[in-house]
């Protein structure tokens, strides 16, 4: 059977909910990561790397079988050995698994940070993708409220150094200790049971297994019932009150502004004490920029010893979308125009010297020599270096202003 030479070859399309990056947004993305790496070093957080794939049980145990992430959104598959594998939908569970299996308890309290891609099968929308990227910071092995405060101060400084803190609000709540949470949960179930007829189908399904999540339901049918539910404050033990007070005192001492949100919850039982979100109205419906909390029961749920821990995660794409237009200077330090082919060797020496000296430099050395200067002048750069020959002698001209341009000129003329 012969092939039709005129048949059009179909072009492969990207997987829905993924994105290719080039130019401005890729630069914004890289800037967020660069600032994160610099700030996490200031706070003594070590870089950690964990696999993109994990046994499905890692996330089923940590996120809960009844959560939407596990039941609807995970990319899970059976590998050739018959094991159920999942592309990581979040970082914390994998880091907790690594903490157990590698014996990292010897380093506790362990402060770690990472960033990279995550995967969830959900409806793509502004600021939300099926392959997305997050920054992540965790403190494992510390039950001190100072660890919570330090993480929040770290997050606050990150947002300020990115230049996106304006219009972003830190909202904070306490979920109490185990005794506080259990008493509150009992009262909430009693309240919701008394209003079963008024709840949405999703909230009725959550009532038995995850009742705290009804408090942050977006369904209008649930809001009157959720808004009239008892707050946790009535059930806090004195120890839980002291813990929350120490966290907020730490924030106040560091000059970090915050607001209380008594309806901010985490549905799974291993969450304790502090829960928080940095929120904005600049990203439409996807208003959470950074969020996290204390998860003292997670490592035990994964089969490890009882271990206190707290952490947060932030979407890189969302932070990149918040960056101002003037935050990133994508200009080169220098561009070299080779106006006479006989001076190419000199130009290449200049190119190498500038790059070794730490100056980002490109060269224009192809095409018509008469057009190279104009071509180079269109490339955004602080310095325009033209190299050519006049009356048989080489010449170097440097155009531009500023201390960095003067350093470039001195280096090139010294060749």
* Helix proportion: 25-40%
| Number of β-strand runs | 15
Count of helical stretches: 14
What is the CATH class of the largest domain? Answer: Alpha Beta
Total domains: 2
Helix and strand topology:
Elements: H1 24-42, E1 46-47, E2 53-55, H2 56-63, H3 68-73, E3 76-78, E4 84-87, H4 92-101, E5 110-119, E6 131-140, H5 145-162, E7 169-174, H6 178-193, H7 201-209, H8 223-227, H9 238-254, E8 259-260, E9 272-279, E10 288-294, H10 298-301, E11 309-315, H11 316-322, E12 332-338, H12 344-356, E13 361-364, H13 369-377, E14 381-390, E15 393-399, H14 403-413
Parallel strand pairs: 1-5, 7-8, 12-13, 12-14
Antiparallel strand pairs: 2-4, 3-4, 5-6, 6-11, 7-9, 9-10, 10-11, 14-15
Descriptive account of the structure:
- The chain is of the alpha/beta class.
- The protein folds into two domains: 24-177 and 237-322, Bira Bifunctional Protein, Domain 2 (BirA Bifunctional Protein, domain 2); 332-413, Anticodon-binding domain (Rossmann fold, 3-Layer(aba) Sandwich).
- It has 14 helices and 15 strands.
- It has helices at residues 24-42, 56-63, 68-73, 92-101, 145-162, 178-193, 201-209, 223-227, 238-254, 298-301, 316-322, 344-356, 369-377, 403-413; strands spanning 46-47, 53-55, 76-78, 84-87, 110-119, 131-140, 169-174, 259-260, 272-279, 288-294, 309-315, 332-338, 361-364, 381-390, 393-399.
- An eight-stranded mixed β-sheet has the order 1-5-6-11-10-9-7-8.
- Strand 3 (76-78) and strand 4 form a beta hairpin.
- The longest helix has 19 residues, at 24-42.
- The radius of gyration is 28 Å and the shape is elongated.
- The model has no long low-confidence stretch (mean pLDDT 90).
